[in-house]
Amino acid sequence: MDVFVIGGGAAGMMAAIEAAVSGCKVTVFEKNEKLGKKIYITGKGRCNVTNASDMETIFANINRNSKFLYSALYSYDNNAVMDFFEGEGVRLKVERGNRVFPESDHSSDIIRALERKLKSLGVEIRLNTCVERLIFTDDACIGLELKGGKKLLADKVIVATGGASYPATGSTGDGYEFAKSAGHSIVTPEPSLIPLVSPAQWVRDLQGLSLKNVELTLLSDNRPVYSELGEMLFTHFGISGPLVLSASALYSTEKGKKKTVTLELDLKPGLDEDMLDKRVLRDFDEQKNRQFSNSLEGLVPKRLIPVLVEKSGIPAETKVNSVSKEQRKALVNALKHFEIPISGMRPIEEAIITKGGVKVGEINPSTMESKKKKNLYFAGEVLDIDAMTGGFNLQLAWSTGYLAGRSED
Prior knowledge:
By secondary structure, this protein is α+β, with helices and mostly antiparallel strands. It folds into 2 domains: 2-190 and 349-406, FAD/NAD(P)-binding domain; 195-345, no CATH class. 30% of the residues lie in helices and 25% in strands. It has helices at residues 10-21, 37-41, 55-60, 70-75, 78-87, 107-120, 174-181, 201-205, 242-248, 273-286, 305-312, 325-336, 392-406; strands at 2-6, 25-29, 50-51, 62-64, 92-95, 99-102, 124-126, 131-136, 141-146, 151-153, 156-159, 186-192, 196-197, 210-220, 223-234, 238-240, 261-266, 338-341, 344-345, 353-358, 376-378, 386-387. The radius of gyration is 25 Å and the shape is elongated.
């Protein structure tokens, strides 16, 4: 059986490996000059291969269409992924949040292991090769046409072209066009795991300030949709950092519904309001004759003080010994409910992943085969699947790629 895989990323390489293991003659078509270009930049260049949590946790971190992924994840789970790379000579380690990385901290080790395996299985790799379109009969996909017009026939075609994020890595939405040509519906691609934009000038003025051990809550129309403890960063356009990227996955842009989105920080998550009030009182007792604005350095970073003063409503020059109980309550409230207005997300080109893609109701979840055209399969980010940060998205790529490569008519 001749199998063509379009896309040499995580899902594509895994699909090619499994198809070759199954005894197929496999060719990978990659328009870039090398394989795994997006893998190189995952996990800040370290490659968060998967997540070592139990299956319940993995499913809890999938944002959409988790039921569709049951067959894929149970056919090729996180333990299978770890066993594969360890078996290919890549030593792995587990870090905070059960994130799995190569021990070397080099994503290139992961790519080299995949390339070695492909080579050992005799998979043909065609780099710098752009697929123009798919070739169909009435009910099946029978091959593809390359840029330049050359037509090639195959028994099976797997589309693993990625989403629309990080186009410099080759993810330019080609797969959506291939899917449409086969009669598939596309759930509008949107950015996910992406920095957020704020219209507030004071946010941009804080550019470069990092906050650690804060609790971030994302509110959509005043309803909490995400809350987590961690780290964030102020930027020249708004906010970024691990907490913000995760929160962005739940940023709603439902059609026809304009939602008011706000971020709220708890700057002192380790203290409830009563404990925090007592802490503030102690600080005030130690510096009774100082101005209010000069008494806050023990509570928040210096650059944040002017904003906190404004949010508290207490005049900056007020003497600490004259701050009333009600004013102190306002300060505590500002520390526990520090609001940051949000006006949108950065462009999809800057997103770590894409949410949206080929509608999963039109794909057989047990095989990843199209329900529209026989012998056509989809794997990875081109599908309408996405998850939180922490190695979960790569796991979805490995699992769907494995299933697409393994499945036969």
